[in-house]
Every structure is written in C-alpha cells, then in structure tokens.
Design goal:
Helix content of chain A: 25-40%
Number of domains of chain B: 2
CATH class of the largest domain in chain B: Mainly Alpha
Oligomer: heterodimer
Strand content of chain B: under 5%
Number of strands of chain A: 10
CATH topology of the largest domain in chain B: MetI-like fold
Number of strands of chain B: 2
Structural class of chain B: mainly alpha
Order of helices and strands of chain A: EEEHEEHEHHHHEHEHEEHH
Radius of gyration of chain B: 23 Å
Largest interface: A-B, 27 and 19 residues
Distance between the termini of chain A: 33 Å
Strand order of the largest sheet of chain A: 6-7-8-3-9-10
Radius of gyration of chain A: 18 Å
Amino acid sequence: MVKFSINNLDIWFGSIQALKNVSIQISANEILSVIGPANSGKTTFLRMLNRLNELQPNFRMQGGIYLSGKDIMKIEAESLRRNVGTVFALPLPLPLSVFDNITYGVRIHGVRNRVELAEIVERSLKQAYLWEEVKDRLNTSAFKLSGGQQQRLCIARTLALSPEVILFDEPCSGLDPISTTRIEEAMLKLKEKYTIILVTNNVKQAARVGDKTAFFLSGELIEMDRTEKIFTTPSDKRTDGYIQGKFG
Amino acid sequence: MRNSARSQKIAFALLFLATLLIIIPVGLIVVIIVIKGLPAINWQFLSDIPRQGMRAGGIFPAIIGTLYLVIGAIVFALPIGLLAAIYLSEYSKENFLSRMIKLAIVNLAGVPSVVYGLFGLALFVVFFKFGASILSGSLTLGIMILPIIITTSREALESVPHSFREVSLSLGASKWQTIRHIVLPNAIPGILTGTILGLGRAAGETAPILFTVAAFYLPRLPKSIFDQAMALPYHLYVISTQVPNVDEKIRYGTALVLLILVLFMNLVAIIIRYKFRKKKKW
C-alpha cells in the first residue's frame, strides 16, 4: 500500500532550489532510508512531508504530495503534523517534565482525562524502550535525562499522538553506539504499525534498518530501490561512489 | 611577560575603580536619605494627612496616590505592552515597516518625561475630558513605560529557543498554542524584569503627573479614579521648593518612603520572577 506519493516536487528557498523534480512512492509499514551528502536536499525532503518547510521565509514549492491519496496542502497543517510526526536530529525535549513532554501533543488535541493521559504515557514510553528507565521519575524535568534517553523521550512524544508516519531526521547523530542500537531496535519494531522515513548520514545505519533506500544528490533523487539492491548493485554509479565513501 | 602582567593589573584597577565610582554615589544617596529621613518616620507620618501647610502631619494621601498611579499604569501598560511584544516578535514579518516600528518604540523610551506629561495633558485631560485625575495620570505614566515593557518583553520572547517552537508545531500545535504553552511561560522572567523597570520609573517620575493628576495639597484620599490625588514625587518637589520652612527631616522622610515603596514593589516582582526562574528547566 502506498502511504506517500510525491509527484514532480520542486522546492525553492528564495532563489536557491533545494529539491529538483523529485517523484517517489513510499509504502506503508516500511522503513525508507534517505541518504546523501550534505546539501543534497534530504532533510528538506523530509520536512516537506509534514509541511515544516513552510515555516521558513521565502519558501516556494511546485508539484504534489499525497498522503493516503489526499493532497497534504489541502489538509490543515496542525492535523497533518499530528499524523506525520517528527523526531529531530538533536534531542529536543520541551522545558517540561517527562510526563508533560509526552502528553503535550495529545493535550493540545483535546485529551484531558488523567487516566487516559497516564495510559498514553506508559504505552508510548514502552514503545520507545524508555519506560523501565524513567517510570519512577515521570515528574522530573526532561532535561535531567541523558542524551540517549532524551532522544527516546522525543520518540515517545511523537508516538503519543499515534501518528501514521514518523519522520526521523538523523536521530542518532549525537548519540553513543549503545543508544543508537536501542533507537534502531525501536524503529524496526515500530514499522509494524507505522510508516517510517529515516534521513541518515550513516550509510551503515541505512543498510541496517531500511527496507528501501533513496539516494539524494544536489537536490535530485538519483535512485530509490530495495536496500539490498542499492547496496549491492545500484543502477547509478554515483550511488555506488557515495556508498563506497568516495565523496560526500 | 612582565609587561602583560602589569597591563593586566592596570586594567583590573581601572575596571574596579569604575565600579567603585558607580557604587559610591548610590551608597551615599541611600545613606544620606536614611540618616536624615529616618527620624521623621513614625506611625503618624505614614498614616496622617499633611497638616499646617504641609509642615507637619503625615504623607498618607501621597503614598496612596502613588500606589494608585503605579498600579493604574501597570494595569494599562502591561497587557497592551505584552500583546504588542508578542505581535512584534512572533507575528510581524521582518520588513521595513516592522523595523521602523521597533526603532520608534526604542526611541520612545528616550523621550523626556515632561513631553509625556504635556501629551497626557493634551490627550487625556483636555481631549478626553478626564480632567486632572488618577485616570489621566495612570494612562500618561502607562504610555511612558510602554516602550520599556515592549522592548524587554520582546527580548524575552525572542530569547526562547527557536527549537522549542518547532517541536511544538511539529506536534500539531497551532502557532497561538505554541506561544501560549511554550513561548510565554519561558519568557515570563524577562517580561517581569521589564515590568520591574517600568514600576520604578512610574513611581518616581514627577513631570508626567505634574499636569495630569498631581494635587498641590489635598488633605483627603481620592474617592474615584476621576479624582485628583497627591503623589510622593510631586509632594517632595512641593515641600522642597514651593513651601518655605519645611523641616528637613520631613523632606528626607518623604524621600525615604518613596525609596522604600519602589524597593518594595521591585522586591515583590523579583520574588515572582525568582519563583518562575526556579521552574525554568533549560
């Protein structure tokens, strides 16, 4: 089943074109890894899927993005972002307690019942493999957690909204190998329920968790295929060059 | 090596001297006012009306008048200033017009207070026909402290990290929800700092109330906001220059009461700010 369908997408910031004629289909319940060197447009691509780009000044786009067949520009941004969650590159807890961080989103969307909120907190923290570590200090500041815990908290915060799609923007770039493994485990488990798009600078990570892999270069989608194929017999030699570490 | 050590010593001495030069006058002012004013302070001085042509009795009506004026100014200026600051920092687009508005607000803070007094006289006393009243005086003081409140509130709002806003929006919050739940709570200490500065200025200024509210001698309490009132800074001016043979300790006593009043109001705001800072988690 196709979750996201992107047709001939062009994006500009002022006079700089960040994405050039990108067309891509993203299947449900899969992990799509997006790789490419710096300035290849991969983060712009990701931030387009829940319309975070439009917060930037001088943003302009052309082309269509469809979530389950619906044009995302015609969906209210607030409800789109509820359905398409983001985990950012750096752990960015809100200046609130662990509990309030996780319930922030659902409270905004009208859930008030304490029992229901507590259930959501427990469920999301378990899904993010964080429950055991923080269950006794839900009311402490989120900033007291370690970096890896904070990032899993951010994942739990996104999961609390029960989105359909989760966007990961280099979620392990600031983390140690053990935290990275835990987050990768969480992602592999999460794809049973969610569609995941993972932007990463770590080619090995893309190979480890991605069902499919897309390679971006200078704002263009060079190719997208099953991860095994991209990493063994890519159709474009630039893809091969990047994976081999010849540039980028 | 020796040379750099010596110039470091000289620099240190100069910096220390400059700091000392600031502290000495402030300390002297406080010490002189306390020493000369303290003998005047007693219950009658604080609770009685002025008597014998302000040469005896107390200054109660002036204390109350100043309190009313300061509270009125804050009630008027804080909401408007805060809303304007939110608009300027969160909603207005960065263009020529918004830059001009920001520049104008900053410059307004430097306008001499007597100009505000004249403006208040023309607008509130004469045009709106509020007469010389607490209302006119509060509004004039309020307008005078608006630029301070707007500028400091704007800085406080803008210092809340951009990433918090993005996270909040990415969780499906609207812009207004983000401002209300994330930006504003984290900006409150800074906003209170602006309010403290505004409070102090509103309490101490003489010129803006000169034409708009202050009564030369009014030995009773104001009955409504349309009433004239005495105020401490103006009363101090009157008994220091307009009335002959006022005992020195009454003048310094009045100054001391004004000083303590401002300090007390600052203290309240500082305590509130401290409570919020403790909650701040980043």
